[in-house]
Amino acid sequence: MELLTSNWWLFDEIGKYFLPEGSTRRWVMFGAILLGISSGVIGSFALLRKQSLLSDAMAHAALPGICLIYMLTGVKDPLLFLVGASITGLLGAIIVSEIPRHTRIKSDTAIGLVLSVFFAFGIVLLTVIQKNFGGNQAGLDAFLFGKAALLVRYDLYVIGTMCLLLIGITLLFYKEFKLLTFDRGFAITLGLPAKKLELCMTLLIVLAVMVGLQAVGVVLMVAMLIFPAAAARQWTDQLGRMIIIAAFVGGFAGVVGSFCSAIMSKVPTGPVMVVVCSTMLIFSMFFAPNRGLIPKWLRLRNNRQRIRRENILKSCYKTCEERENWKVIFTLKDFTTYFRFSNYATRQLLHYLVKKQRLVSFNGGWQLTPQGLDKAEQIIRKHRLWEVYLTEKMDIASDHVHRDAEDIEHALDDKTVQQLEEELQSPTQDPHGKSIPNVDFSRERKTT
Amino acid sequence: MGRESKKVDEETVADVHDLTVSYHIHPVLWDVDFQVPRGKLMAIVGPNGAGKSTLIKAMLGIIPSTTGWVKIFNEPYQKVRHRIGYVPQRGSVDWDFPTTAIDVVTMGRYGKIGWFRRPGKKDREISYTYLEKVGMQDFAQRQISQLSGGQQQRVFLARALAQEADIYFMDEPFAGVDVVTEKAIVNLLFELREQSKTVIVVHHDLQTVNEYFDWILLLNMRKIAIGNVDDTFNEENLRKTYGGKLAILSKAANAMTKGRVDGIID
Amino acid sequence: MTLMAFASFEIWIMVIGALVCSACGILGCFLILKKLALMGDAISHAVLPGIVVAVMLSGSLNSIAIFVGAGIIGVLTPILVDSLKSSRLIDEDAAIGSVFTFLFAIGVIMVANAGNIDLDTECVLYGEIATTPFDTWVVGGTPYEFDGHTFMKGGTDIGPKSAWTLGIVLLINILFIFFFYKELKISTFDPALALSMGLKPKLIHYLLMFFVAITTIASFEAVGAIIVVAMFIAPGASAYLLTDRLSLMIFLSGIVGAASSVLGYMLALALGGDVSIAGCMAVAAGGIFAMCFFFSPKYGVVVRFARRYKLKKRFHAENALVNMYRTHELGERCLVKNYRHNVIVRFIQQNILTEKDGELHLTEFGTEKAQNLMRAHRLWEAYIHKLGLPEDHVHQPADEMEHYLTNDLCTEIAQELKNPQSDPHGKPIPTKPAL
Predict the structure, then answer these.
(1) Separation between Cα atoms, residue B215 and residue B197, nearest integer Å
(2) Interchain contact C223–B (C-beta under 8 A)
(3) Residue B211: which residues within 8 A CB-CB, separation 6 or more?
(4) Domain A373-447, what fold?
(5) Which of A99, B101, B170, C334 stands 20 to 30 A from C188 (CA)?
(6) How far away is chain A from the Cα of C334, in angstroms, using its nearest Cα?
(7) How does this protein sit in the membrane (chain C) (predicted)?
């Protein structure tokens, strides 16, 4: 609470990283960054191989391995923990793949089974340690939800090495991992040892789990594998970039997560990092330029508006065509009753059309401009050509084609229209007997 | 026995001998035995579940075979991998994978690049040439999920071409493609034949067999017939392939599976 | 008196454990069959923030508010996962993983920050089953205040509160399965069919999720949020390996659940008693699954391996028998020295062979057996020859197939081939032996 009294507490906290006594904080931050990078890199492959939840099972399965190693040796050494965790983690992965091979139990059940039973076993061992090894257990406890503050320099050397190893192996086998992930069958025909490479990737996941063990803990480790990779996926369509972005996202989450837990001493680091990461995923899912939901929604909305505008022009054209008068003036009411749009929406659409000089305001009403007429003609042409195409080439009854043409008229591009016209040998009438406007027709109309 | 004495034609590029393949121990191909001569466009034709794709995959070692062997250019396929091109079924991969069309084509070069090395400039140029060849050069940097089905198929084809192989295996390249793509693929097939390369294609459209292919293998859990299209692709063989009663074969397969898996024979 | 109390405390732990395991186990059957095991995993993690909020508001782990909150999250989690999946931005696998880790992380942070409530991280991870028997329910007493807490004076102690809660939840689960049995069964087996029959598989799906969440909450105090996953999956998975019938599978999963509880408690006692009892119960459930995996009478890996081994031995014997028959058929002498000693001994025991002066003779029974095999062999040769295999390719497949073909199948083949008299090599096919 004391912190909050100062307006500059945040800067004070950040400042602590640069002071000599802030060395622990710097170590912790380095550790968290390494974790973010390594889990971002291998998490990308796990995500694309749809093995996120298998990684979850492996992370949980690391717990009994760590406890067993500790019970056997009685020392807390990250290298030894790596050995223990690799053995049980790999055993878990093997069991997950063997159960569905030999029985009718599906892999999701196998994953859940390994995850919970191995974890329960780990918990039992942890309580045994608590009873028999006394206070030391506090250290192992941190492996559940992480306690980055407990990282010491030696731990950092070890996880730094692991992280480098992980990145090195991924770089070396990048091409092979990529091909195997994308198209396993093809990879085999090229002579890649699929099984060995898959084992290698599984081992890398164990390695990433180990890097994150002290900072995030086994329970939530999988989140660090999923979130950065899934967030990165939204921003790019290339694997290489995705991996780099994932590493950055993971590293950033590491910095923020370790900072938050440094100032909130009660909270374990793991959950904080998960919340930071998931916020980044949520942000990416909404705002990423191509795949993001909001850009996508905007594109959809623009398209809908365009279709509405095209429909307005089309309806004007049809009315003019019926009355054989190309200078009909339409009132707002004409549009609102015809389309059942609200007044406001209609005004907006009309305003846009006037701005684009498709319509012109005239005596409190609206009239088609020559450009507007051209545009409307194009749409009508697409509509009626498509109707002809459906009746003639697809043998669909002429009273069934209108609805379909309503949709397609907004989507056909000029090239397709040209092909369509060639294939149908430039028809002049649609199946309902209405004329299909073409270039000559439009010239003729303009002169009258 | 007469097995060893079977005359292997010099021009035989693929020799499949008594191949039996099981999927999860359930036999799907029974003692398939045939040879493919050089420079043929061969269609593998048969009803759904006849084991067409399985045959190709077993020939390429993607799935293991129970008995029998396959020789390509008179060698086990492991030794001649660099001379084999493969087009898998389009549905067999996740098209949402973050990669571009040119990147997929470059994957065809991986076998030639070897371990630890990155595709170089030359590989990329070669890949681009083949992408051009299938008329997809404008889509080189496009994410693969944004391509239409036909375009995806053409990318796969370009990848196989980038393998610069002598024998090609294609798994349903015509499935779900538009007319333009189908034409483009057929022209490519003809071009490959002119270079006296061999192409084995899993095909499901009986109407186009005569037009596209000169050699045919009719398959329905076992080989029905093989030979040139004019002689082999006849009504009788088709009836055997599509109308043949195979209840016994599948019952026997079931009995065998049960015995092998559970150790039970009723 | 003290001894009595201790004993009943032990029994209560086992009873509560058994209630947890069976309540979870019977629902778990459907999770397994619907391939929703991981959704169950996700829900059990995701309810944590709901629990924490409810505990903060009501101050106790035993309140209706928790069940309401959990029910909502239980239905919300699959909806969230489904909508993430349908946005096509991430796959189902990652969608499940991100939803539950996010909610669980928030829950853990809340637990860590929520100073004086009745929850800590240990409880979240593995529950406090050892303390549940002491929180008993007293009826008919008069409440009095002491040291800021409300206690009951007098009245009748009718057992631990968790036992009552879990008992009720188990009963509700049983009733749910009982009344919706056919709907659950069809929508598990074939959701499309269920939809076409107007059975609302979606509703059933969310109801199931709702009950999973409720059960998780009821079990939370005893076993925590992670170990409960084992209770959901392990009993059902074990039962799945023991039977082919759904109703029996559900029943067995309940039994396996109860057994896990008892065995788990034994294990905990063996380890000194001062260890995570819930963890031991989950390990026991895993152990039972491992036993089923290896030794289930029908699907056990070891059992099947043993059966296959036995079958292989039988095939060897049958091959020898066929060989003897062939030798006789050719009119040659069948000599003892050509066969393995133990095969001959067994055949003589089984009244298949007689031995005289180093020469073997098939008995009538033996001939019949051999003829059966020979018939299968040659019929199969004829059959695959007809399918188009050249005659020099048919022997090897038939050699294997002869062991698998049943009499019925042989008859069917014979009919299909219009009762052939000889195989492709011109050898006679023995007729169907008189039964």
Answers:
(1) 13
(2) no
(3) B186
(4) Arc Repressor Mutant, subunit A (1.10.10)
(5) A99
(6) 42
(7) Multi-pass membrane protein
